[in-house]
Amino acid sequence: MQLNQVRVYRSDEKLAREDQLAWKIAEVAADPVEVSNEVTEMVINRLIDNAAVATASLTRAPAIAARAQAQDHPYAPGSTVFGIPGRYGPEWAAWANGVAVRELDYHDTFLAAEYSHPGDNIPPILAVAQHVGRGGHDLVRGIATGYEIQIDLVKAISLHAHKIDHVAHLGPSAAAGIGTLLGLAPETIFQSIGQALHTTTATRQSRKGEISTWKAHAPAFAGKMAVEAVDRAMRGQTSPTPIYEGEDGVIAWLLDGPDAHYEVPLPERGETKRAILDSYTKEHSAEYQAQAWIDLARRLHQRYPELGPDTIERVIIRTSHHTHNVIGSGANDPQKYDPTASRETLDHSIPYIFTVALQDGEWDHEKSYAPERAARPDTVALWNRVVTEEDPEWTRRYHSNDPAEKAFGGSVAITLRDGSVIVDEIAVADAHPLGANPFGREQYIAKFRGLAEGTLEEIEIERFLDLVQRLPELDATELGGLTVTARPGLLLPGPKGLF
């Protein structure tokens, strides 16, 4: 990997195009290097994972609305949309599938200087692959690039510190991945990256306070913008330049300002793209920083079945700065303690999640968020006794570059009414590569089967699993089958809007 120095340049300073971050990203995307077998296998895992969580969300309101929008844009050759037959405009397929994948907050993650769900790259890249008639080999290469660029940006450039939403790294990475898929020249990819970034910077209010359905739509919007940016760039249209380093650019005004300096790691020419191997998926439908806490709460439930509002005086969760301030009590969001809060808000509340997992000894993507579950008086009573605190050591481990040390958990101290204290800790989720039950192909398939039950017919489940596991050898016709169709009668027409 090569560390690329990035700073702000005044307009009267000459910054050569080849020295701009967007150009360097474009060169990585245009590099014809092949993908390793290990990375290819992980791409297959993540396609299974995305299909699993998209299937589970097909009857949820955001997915229904986005799918209805796509249905109003049929197109040939076009791209497929989860849940329904037919072909639709690739940008709208990317939109609908992106919402379905993101709705349950249940697919993969990478956390470093910034947050990310790099699986969000897959819907736009797959949509374009189907539309233009590419095969599985090209799709693997495009997805590997999307993961590489997003994860490399996430390692170096914090967005949330300036209240910019994490999808600002997704627009450029998806555009780069599409560029790899199509074998575009660096100049075209460069222009599409600039346009994609310019149109996908927004504030983090979508993940603050009363979290709305837009949380699922935001990454899908970035994917849709990436598809459109590539289309415009292929037609010869240009982007604001330099998009990152300009004195009125993203860094100068939205991030660390005119004195900013970043070191962005990117593969050298000829170096294989392996960043997808640094990412990790979710066993539970909740924000990633809650995964380990669900596992710890389940363990405590088994060890101490007597724990509950009648025995617990106070629960203090000590964790990283990110976890405390984003999904903990450090966010200062009263909605995180509100039993009438939206599902999107509750899955960003460590106090709620820890309480329910401790009481139930399990986590379910539907039952654990049900309004009647959140409103249970004993749950509300215990929930309000759970607080988080930042612990500098867990913050340090969160930011560690050593995979063996990097952690997303913390310690918990449960003070009982009799004065005794139960103390325990967890570093990573059970499903993490270093966790108690790391996810492999078997677990991804089990997740898909479990979430597809009742939504897809058994023959459709087996068809998809057989097809996706042959990904590198799929031709264009077969690649059109990388979708799922719901069982007859399950999906009702969506709401009408403008179209």
TrEMBL record:
So what does this thing catalyse? Answer: (2S,3S)-2-methylcitrate = 2-methyl-cis-aconitate + H2O
The membrane-spanning stretches of this chain are none
Assembly state and interactors?
Monomer.
Family membership, please give it. Answer: Belongs to the PrpD family.
Q: Which UniProt keywords apply?
A: Lyase
Q: Where in this chain does the record put each MmgE/PrpD N-terminal domain?
A: 20-262
Sample GO molecular function, one term: 2-methylcitrate dehydratase activity
Q: Which InterPro entries does the annotation name?
A: MmgE/PrpD_sf, MmgE/PrpD_sf_1, MmgE/PrpD_sf_2, MmgE_PrpD, MmgE_PrpD_C, MmgE_PrpD_N
Q: Where is the MmgE/PrpD C-terminal domain?
A: 284-471
Q: What is this protein called?
A: 2-methylcitrate dehydratase
The lineage's top-level taxon is: Bacteria
Which species is listed as the source?
Answer: Lacisediminihabitans changchengi
Q: What class of enzyme is it?
A: lyase
EC code: 4.2.1.79
